[in-house]
Design goal:
The protein is α/β, with parallel strands linked by helices. It is built from 8 helices and 6 strands; from the N terminus they run βααβαβαααβααββ. It has one domain: Phosphoglycerate mutase-like (Rossmann fold, 3-Layer(aba) Sandwich). α4 packs across α5 and α6 crosses α7. Belongs to the phosphoglycerate mutase family. BPG-dependent PGAM subfamily.
Amino acid sequence: MSGTLVLVRHGQSDWNLKNLFTGWKDPDLTELGIQEANTGGKALADYGIKFDVAFTSDLKRAQDTLTIILDNVGQTDLKTFRDQALNERDYGDLSGLNKDDARAKWGEEQVHIWRRSYDVPPPGGESLRDTGARVWPYYLTEILPRVLRGEKVLVAAHGNSLRSLVMVLDRLTKEQILALNLATGVPMVYKLNADSTVASKEVLGDMSGAH
């Protein structure tokens, strides 16, 4: 029997709050972000799942979210792999800029294209397709084999690295993925079939808070 894959986007970070492009920069979680991670962790504890292994990115906000979740489920010593393959999309020259300032500099339409197109990267950065090009191989070689062996796997990562995974799992088109926002701290529980397709998906919490 195939296992379970749980995806969680990190809680709100300090730069989310300040409306800054974050990318590979490394701000801390806000108080709200810590609360969101705790809420997600409690939801998983109530769900009754025990994990075999965890994966997270090379960035602190995802690692701290994972730590809080594991504390809530009573698995603080869980084997964990960190890899920059799961990092947030690199926003390049936009990183650290206020989104309103970026619109003033490059224009509303251009910034919207960089943020929301599938394959147009910002200057010096990655498109969603570029992000997927590093997330997918890592998923296929490191994460998926464990799930197919029947393990319960937790992945705490970022809005865009997880969107590129959800795109494949949920079989979304390029247009559909652009409309999808993942709520912070809300676990998505996937049960996979032996052929790696999705048998079921359950969202443990309120997705309406997505931003």
